[in-house]
Amino acid sequence: MSRYSYIPHTETEISEMLETIGVKSIEALFEDVPKVFDFKLDLPESSDEFSVARELKALSKKNLSLNEMAIFRGAGVYYHYIPSAIRYLSSRGEFLTAYTPYQPEVSQGTLQALFEFQTMIAELTGLEVANSSMYDGATAVAEAALMAVRTNGRNRVLISQTIHPEYRHVTNTYCHAQSIEIEELPYSKDTGQIDLEKLKSTLDDDVSAVIVGYPNYFGIIEDLKKIKALLDEKIMFIVVANPIALSVLEAPGSFGADIVVGEGQPLGNPSSLGGPGFGFFATREKFVRKMPGRIIGETKDVDGKTGYVMVLQTREQHIRRGKATSNICSNHAHNAVIAAMYMSLLGKEGLREVAIRSFDKAHYLFHQISKIEGMEPLFSGPFFHEFPVRLKGTSASKLNADLLKHKILGPMELEKDFPELGNSVLFCTTEAVRNEDLEFLLGRLEEIL
Amino acid sequence: MKKYAKTHEWVHVEGNVATVGISNYAQEHLGDIVYVELPEVGKEVTKGDTICSVESVKAASDVYSPLSGKVVEVNEELDSAPETINSDAEKSGWIFKLELSDPAELDGLMDEEEYKKYCEEEEA
C-alpha cells in the first residue's frame, strides 16, 4: 500500500528511485523548497468514493452560486447568461481532447472552430488579424506591451491608471523583467477618462506604446479618436476592450488602434472563481509576425479542398526557442472555442441585444442612484455597463454585507486599488439582471442609506 | 570579388560598401523562403552580430553580419518577393548593403574556393 492515496508509486518503487539518484528520503529530495511552502494539509483519513462525494456535496451546499443571486459586480469578470446549448456542445470529446493542434490531419474540427473564432474577434475589434487566444486578459495586455517594444524598438510604455489593476500588475512584472520603462497615465477626476493634457505632456520619442481601456475599469468609454490624434505614427496604440461592448461601440480599429486585447470571459464563459477565461489579441496584418500566440490559417489541400492549419509557426518557441516572438505557451483554446460557440449562437443581433440591455439597465440604475441621498456617481464621462459611486451614509463593506444577506452580489469596492476614491464602489449590470432585481436593490439602497 | 562567412553569408565589396546576402548553399538548406525580416537602414553592426532573419516554411534562421559597419540600404523587393533568395540567392536576392567601418575584416572571410570546400566538410 502506498503512503500517498492518490500517487500510484509503491514504497518499494519510491525507495528504488531515491536510491538511484542517491537521495536518502522524500524530505531530503525536497529540502530546497522553502519551508513556507511546506503545506501539511490537515486531511481526514481516506474514505470510499460514495462517502467522500456525500461529504463534499454537503460542503458545497454552503456556497452561494451566482445563479441563485442578483449580480451587480463586474470589474473584469461579467455574469452574462450562457445559453444551455454551450455546455453540451463544448463538452463534446472532440473539442476537449486537442491541446495544440500541430497535426492538422487529425484536428480539422478544432482548427476550424478556432479559425472562426479569430474571424469574429477580427470583426469585433476592426482589425485584420487575431490569434487563437491568450492565457487571459492580463497577459494579453502585457504581451501587447512587449510586442510594441519589439515592433518600434522604443522602450517606454504608458499605461492608463484606469486599466484593470491586476492587468497593470502583470504588465509591470513583464516589463520590469525586460527592463522596459512603464509609466501610469492619470485620469480626469471629472470625466473618468484619460487626462489628455497629461498624456500630451508625457509623450516623447521614447514612447513605444499607449495603453487605454475601452471601456476602462470604471466602465467609462474613452475618446479613442482624440487619443490617437496625439500619437506620432511610430507609437503603438493599444486598446484593452470588453468584447461585449465592441458589438455596439465603434471598433477600435477604425480609430487607428494597432493592437486590441482583452479578457474574453464575457463571451459565453462562466465567471467561475475569476477564471479560467481567455485573452483575445488582434492587430494589423503588417505586424502579424510580431504577434504572440498561435494563428490558424485557411488553405487548400492537394485535392483543392479547404483545410485549416496552424500558420506562422516559425516565430514560435518550439522552433525559435529563446528567440521566439513570445514564450507564453499556455493559451486557453477551449475557452476560445466556447466563445466562438456563444458568438455564433447569438449572432450579430443577439450580441448587440446583450450589450444594449446591459447598457440600458446600467443607465437606469445610474439615474435612480443619482436621486438617492448619500450616493453620488463619480464621473460625468459616457459609460457602458459599469459606473462608480461614492457612498456617504455607510461603508462599502457594510453595504455589501447587507446585500449579501439578500442574495445580492453587491458592487466592487474601489478603495483598495484606488485609495484616492475613498469609500467608493463600482456597480455593474448585464442583461442577466432582472428588472425586479434592480427594484429590490434600489429599495435596499434607500433603506441602508 | 565575392567572399563568404562561416555562417553562410556572401559579401561583395565595391569601394567601401559591401552587399550582403545568404549563400546558395544556405538557401538550399532552408527550403522555400516565405519572409525576410530586413534590418533597419542606419543600424550599426559589429561583425558576427545577428542583423536580421530569414524565414522558410520549416524554420527561421538568423542572418549574421559578416563585417562591421552601418546599414545603408536594404532590398525592399524581398518584402513582396522573398522567394527571390531561392531563385537567385547570390545576386538579385541580396539582403542589405553595409558601409564598412573596418575593411581589414575582409581578410578573415573565405574566397569561393575555400567556401566550397568548407561546405563539403559541413556535409560530411
TrEMBL record, chain A:
Keywords recorded for this protein, A-Z: Oxidoreductase
Domain Glycine cleavage system P-protein N-terminal: 5-442
An example molecular function term from Gene Ontology annotations: glycine dehydrogenase (decarboxylating) activity
Family the UniProt entry places it in: Belongs to the GcvP family. N-terminal subunit subfamily.
GO biological process: glycine decarboxylation via glycine cleavage system; nucleoside metabolic process
Plastid among keywords: no
EC number: 1.4.4.2
Catalysed reactions listed for this entry: N(6)-[(R)-lipoyl]-L-lysyl-[glycine-cleavage complex H protein] + glycine + H(+) = N(6)-[(R)-S(8)-aminomethyldihydrolipoyl]-L-lysyl-[glycine-cleavage complex H protein] + CO2
Pfam families recorded: GDC-P (PF02347)
Subunit composition and interactions: The glycine cleavage system is composed of four proteins: P, T, L and H. In this organism, the P 'protein' is a heterodimer of two subunits.
Entry-linked InterPro entries: GcvPA (IPR023010), GDC-P_N (IPR049315), GDC_P (IPR020581), PyrdxlP-dep_Trfase (IPR015424), PyrdxlP-dep_Trfase_major (IPR015421), PyrdxlP-dep_Trfase_small (IPR015422)
Uppermost EC category: oxidoreductase
Chain's role: The glycine cleavage system catalyzes the degradation of glycine. The P protein binds the alpha-amino group of glycine through its pyridoxal phosphate cofactor; CO(2) is released and the remaining methylamine moiety is then transferred to the lipoamide cofactor of the H protein.
Name of the protein: Probable glycine dehydrogenase (decarboxylating) subunit 1
Automatic annotation (TrEMBL), chain B:
Cofactor note: Binds 1 lipoyl cofactor covalently.
GO CC term, one of those recorded: glycine cleavage complex
UniProt modified residues of type N6-lipoyllysine: 58
Stored InterPro entries: 2-oxoA_DH_lipoyl-BS (IPR003016), Biotin_lipoyl (IPR000089), GCV_H (IPR002930), GCV_H/Fam206 (IPR033753), GCV_H_sub (IPR017453), Single_hybrid_motif (IPR011053)
PROSITE patterns: BIOTINYL_LIPOYL, LIPOYL
Ranges for domain Lipoyl-binding: 17-99
The keyword Membrane appears for this protein: no
Annotated CDD domains: GCS_H (cd06848)
Family stated for the protein in its record: Belongs to the GcvH family.
Subunit and interaction comment: The glycine cleavage system is composed of four proteins: P, T, L and H.
Function: The glycine cleavage system catalyzes the degradation of glycine. The H protein shuttles the methylamine group of glycine from the P protein to the T protein.
PANTHER family (alphabetical): GLYCINE CLEAVAGE SYSTEM H PROTEIN, GLYCINE CLEAVAGE SYSTEM H PROTEIN-RELATED
Protein name, as recorded: Glycine cleavage system H protein
